[in-house]
Amino acid sequence: IHTNFIGTYTLLEAARKYDIRFHHVSTDEVYGDLPLREDLPGHGEGPGEKFTAETNYNPSSPYSSTKAASDLIVKAWVRSFGVKATISNCSNNYGPYQHIEKFIPRQITNILSGIKPKLYGEGKNVRDWIHTNDHSTGVWAILTKGRMGETYLIGADGEKNNKEVLELILEKMGQPKDAYDHVTDRAGHDLRYAIDSTKLREELGWKPEFTNFDEGLENTIKWYTENQDWWKAEKEAVEANYAKTQEVIK
Fold first, then answer.
1. What is the pLDDT of residues 220-247, one digit of tens each?
2. Catalytic residue among 9, 57, 63, 218
3. Global pTM?
4. Among 81, 150, 206, 250, which is 20 to 30 Å from 139 by CA?
5. Is 29 a catalytic residue?
6. What is the CATH number of the domain that holds 136?
7. Which of 28, 159, 167, 190 is catalytic?
8. Is the alpha carbon torsion for 94, 97, 100, 105 positive or negative?
């Protein structure tokens, strides 16, 4: 609440006071979740099967609720006070320098630390993965070419479920694909995210560069392997924090 809502309000007021261009980086989590593809008629790509800028907000968690609130206050400051602002909602990032509490670096650093990786529930939850470099170029396109008051979604068509991603990491790091523990699922765990970035691509000419997830994942594993000094000091504290809420399912 303090960071996502009050923090955004504070920055908006500063941008308003000094007439500064404002860009608000948000998340696809504000839209809630989507059904798994196998649960959709025809398993196709019809309307409503991906998030767009017109999708209704339906947040599921305290985090996504406060992010949704921050999006709405940006829209209100644009309309009420003429603040020059844009919004981007992005899918799940991966790549170098991501904090080790996040799903992909946590699994990689667990393996490097001799800790068994952990998978929430059955691992069917689908995320639309995008390399952090592509997220950055998407934001830059919006900053330099986006229309004021508009929302743009940033995604790279990278849908994979958590089980697939974890097993791929294990395989690429020379481990058996089943060498992980199932842990209790997260409260309010959204089922599937998927981004339709047509508006960003067609209106601003953006396109992702890192479209080969296997290759991007290999590069990410290589970075965390070669830069252990960057994350090693925090690893024990991160795992101790997770241990308070995660119970291994026997």
1. 999 999 999 999 999 999 999 888 776 6
2. 63
3. 0.90
4. 81
5. yes
6. 3.40.50.720
7. 28
8. positive
